Structures are given as structure tokens and as C-alpha cells.
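The instructor's notes for this session suggest beginning with a concrete chain rather than abstract definitions. Hand out the sequence below and ask the class to guess, before any prediction is shown, which regions might be ordered.
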Amino acid sequence: MNNLIILPIIIPVVTGMVMVILRDNIWLHRFLSLLATVLIGIVSVLLLEQIRTIGIQILYLGGWKAPFGITLVADMLAVLLVLVTAIVTFCCLFYAFSSIGPERERHYFYSFCLFLIAGVNGAFLTGDIFNLFVCFEVMLVASYVLISLGGSRIQLRESTKYILINMISSFLFLTAIAFLYSMTGTLNMADLSVRVAEAGQGELLTAVSLLFLIVFCLKAGLFLFFWLPGSYSAPPTAIAAIFAALLTKVGIYAIIRLFSLVFYHEPSITHLFIGILAAASMVLGAMGAVAYWDIKRIITYTVVVGVGFVLAGYASFSLVGIRGSVYYLIHDMIVKALLFLAGGTIIHLTGTGKLREMSGLIRLHPKLGWMFFIAALSLSGIPPLSGFIGKIFVIEGTFQSSYFWLGGIGLFTSLMVLYAAMKIFMNVFWGYTNLTEDMQKGTTRGLLLPITILTLLTIGLGLGAEGIHEYVDLAVEGLMNPNIYIEAVLVPKGQ
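After discussion, reveal the predicted structure:
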């Protein structure tokens, strides 16, 4: 057993509780929140090396072996996502120092951010489906507070919708878990895989799998994304960036994990359905990005396109397609945070998000302009940036699986996203401007460093993709061969 596995969950919880007690010391809150994300990153790197050299790491809480106790499982995919979560959160929290405002800081902003991260990391690392539900709820309760923190009219309106939708999806999640437990007698995901394989994934189990898919579609914003554009554009920039980078990704991870480990026996039904939903998400999301002339709305709709693209590669259920999904998932977490932070900085400087009311900003802020340009190219999959690596594998995977229609939609919507991103760049940064430094509504002081870090990451992931391919390939191998996961959990080494 490896006790390191629980640290990405324990560190943010304990740190957040300490900050609740020490409410008035904002500088200590800032330091502790960054320290917590750095420690999570260090633990993740240690776990990555252990998994690469030894194999999947397991922790049986209380010493109760699977499938009877609570099991935490650190495989390559989960720990890669925990590491990227730590990096993205570090950048968003650093950005918040200069943008979130003292009122929100005093009302436990940093504590609830860390509680949210604890839920996200728990969802990635849990080995049973009920605790996946628990971690979802921890994440969502923290997000309820964050989305409404500040109490502006638009926040309260969108938070009401956000909470209602997630209450419905959580009810459906519990219902699906109850059906699954009644049919299999277990909730441990490795044990579920064995029992479903033994019993055969008949019509009833396939129906339950589709119920789970509906739940995770609501969580991830896959096709059922009607709640997402308003909810992600209402809160302040730092919170919106965390939401866009992390929350939908937990839903994506749940789909990938469950339909690779448990419900993988009827891909002609389940995975084809995922592919259809992914195609619809890409098309509708791209249409929204092209149609709007508001920065927040455009960037928010690209979140929907990203969800569809990740799951398009997974729907192909081929080695190269799933490799593309993993690459693109990592890329999307970084570039979505980058876009939201850059877009929020533009609004902070100009006092508006409407494209027709601004121009020529690059004259005063060339660094911000060119970093946004790089982010836009990476989002669209232009080489040699990080988005290109994932997109080329996803398209190849869909073609290999004869899903030519899905690959074609992916290519077409990539062009639409490129148009939408360039629409922002050309209207905001290009052309003549009457804006002077004295007329600006804010300053970039303290805001450019986290944007720079994320920009360098998206460049580095593109140019240095060879450096992480071993880790990505191990993650893909674990998804394509469920027995690796099952044996690690149910047959511990030395027994």
C-alpha cells in the first residue's frame, strides 16, 4: 500500500480547514493555498515515477482489502490529471491575488477553492463508484459557494440554475448506483468489471450504463450543456477559469473510466452513442462560439467543443484515438484556464466584454496580445502547439474506426473555433484604439505571470510531446486493458 495516494485529498482539506479558523489573515491564506498546490504537484510527480517503474499504486483505507473497503487507486491517467489540476489551480489562485477582491478573500474564497480541489482529486483517485459520487458532491458543494460568492444579480441567477441542474443529476447518479448495486452486489469498480464480464452486459446493464452516461453528460457538459454558458460566465475570472479547466474534466474522466473498465462490452451501443453526443457537442458549441460577440460567451462555448473533441477520440475506442483523448484532455485543462484568464484580463482592462466596443489593445499590452494569440492557435490545434498533438491522434483514431463522419466534424469545428478565436484577437488587439493608459479600467499588475506560465506550458507540451509520451502511453494501456487495473486492485502484489 502507498500512503502518498491520499495526500492530494488530505492536503487541500486540512489546509482549507486551517484557513477557515484563521479567517482574517489573508496573506497567510494566499501563502497556504499556493503551498498546498505545490505540495500536491510534488506528490503527483513522485506517484508518476512510482507508477512508471513499479505499476499502479493502491491504498486500502483502514486496511480493508477490495472489494470490501474503500480503495484509492493511483493509475497513470488519474495521477496525470491530479498533476495538471495542481498546476492549473496554482496559476488561477495566483491570478486571484490581484483580481478577486478583498471581500471574497475574507469570505473563504481560498478555503473553498481547496475543498473543490479535494473533491476533484478524490474523483480521479477513488476506486469505487459510490465514493466517486461523494467526491462529486464535495466538488459541487464547494462550486456552489464559489459561483455565488459576491452575490451579484447574474451570479445568483446562474447559481440557482447551476444548483438545480446538479441536484437533478446527483439524484440520477444515486439512482443509477442503486440499480447497479442491486444487479451486481458491489460498488468497487475493479470488482464491478469482473462481475459484469462474468454475467455479460445484457440489455438491463446496458440501460443502466446509459443512465450513467446521461448523468455524466450533465456533469461534463456533453450535449446537455444548456446550463454551462451562463454558469461559467457569471463568476469572477479566477473562479470561471478553475471551473472551465477542472469541473467538466471530472465528468469526462468518469465517462472514460466507467466505460473503459465496466461498460466496455457493447461498444456498438455505448461508444457509438458517446460519439454521436460528442459530434453534437462539437457542432453546437462551435456554432455558439461563432455566433456570439462577447468574449466570455465565446470562450465558454469552446469548453463545450473541447468536451466533444476529447470524447470523440474515446468513442473511436482505438489505441490511437484514446491516446489523442488523453493528450487533448491534458491540453484542454491548460488552454481553457489560459483563455479564461486572458479573456478576463481583457475585460478587466477595458471594462467590457463586447468585441465591437474595443480595438487596438496590442499597442498598450503586446505581451497579453501575443499570449492570447498563442492560446487561440493552440485551442484550434495549430502545430506545433499542444492542441495539435491531441487533435491529430483523435482524427486518426476516428478514421481508423471508420467513424469518418466524426473525424470530419472534428476537423470542421476546429476551423470554426479558429475563426471564433481569431475574431476575438482581431477585434480586441488589432486596429486603431482611442484607449490610453489613463482610460483603462484596471492594470495587468500581478495578472500576466500566471498567463505566461500557462502559455509556456501549452508551447512546451507541443514542442516537447515526446517527453510525456511514455506516461500517456501507460495511461492508454491501462484504459485499453482493464485487467491491469483489476489485478492491481483485487490481486495485490505479494499475495
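Then share the key points. The chain has 20 helices and two strands. The longest strand covers residues 57-60.
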